[in-house]
Amino acid sequence: xxxxxxxPMVTQVNRLPARARRFMPEQVRQLHDGWTFxxxxxxxDCGDFCAPELDDTGYAPIRVPANWQVEGFGKxxxxxxxxxxxxxxxxxxxxxxxxxxxxxxxxxxxYRLWFDADAPTDGQRVLLRFDGVETAYELYVNGEFVGxxxxxxxxxxxxxxxxxxxGRNLLALRVFTYATSxxxxxxxxxxxxxxxxxxxxxxxxxxxxxDLTVRAVADRHGQGGAxxxxxRVARVPGFSEQTVHVKLLDESGALVAEQxxxxxxxxxxxxxxVPTASTARVD
Length: 283
Prior knowledge:
This protein is an all-beta fold. It has one helix at about 180-185, and strands at about 10-15, 30, 35-40, 60, 75-80, 90-95, 95, 110-115, 125-130, 135, 135-140, 145-150, 155-160, 165-175, 190, 195, 200-205, 210-220, 225-235, 245-250, 255-260, 280. It is globular, with a radius of gyration of 23 Å.
């Protein structure tokens, strides 16, 4: 497995593009109960943490979402403008940070969660969403590598449709305290690591709305305004043969306007006046 956390050119592997959060309640299953955890001093100490056959009796229950330091594992670190590791020897040069070096004493938190699920049908897509994990992490499902992500205060989504099997499944994470991204997130800051925001398994139809962009501009000289909505759909076979219908309702629920637009098949040179690929624009 490549050491992505040491590569400043890599901020994600297999992470889906960021988007606005928009799901129906029945599509979302929160994964907050039943996690176990073990803290290791260095990445090379973690062993087969993601293996389904691992004897994990050395792992302890942990609350999710939460930072592992406030759950009794390790110690919280506060730093103002200096980096929270020695800046000499292998970690720096002449007492000065040497980007993008990361200290070898880099505590790793390994998480494991067993959960039951139905195998996805041909018409379904299954995503795993992490709303926040600090600092960087590798994700595995049933012992197979799914992806990697940094940006500890941003959500990440991964497509796990091909990894989920019928019955019992294992979700495993290895969370790094330090990564090359630490050089960008280290300002007047508490280092509190782990899965600190919600985790969800999301089941969607293959054909679904992926994202929305809404632009509303008021007429400062009148009582009206202009509304533009870009609706991006999943790029599945036949996506460009679809249309999107948008309705605008007032606060009482009365119809103000409605319009239908086709989904664009491919992007144009500029998206200022036309939508990008797999997107319909309603003005």
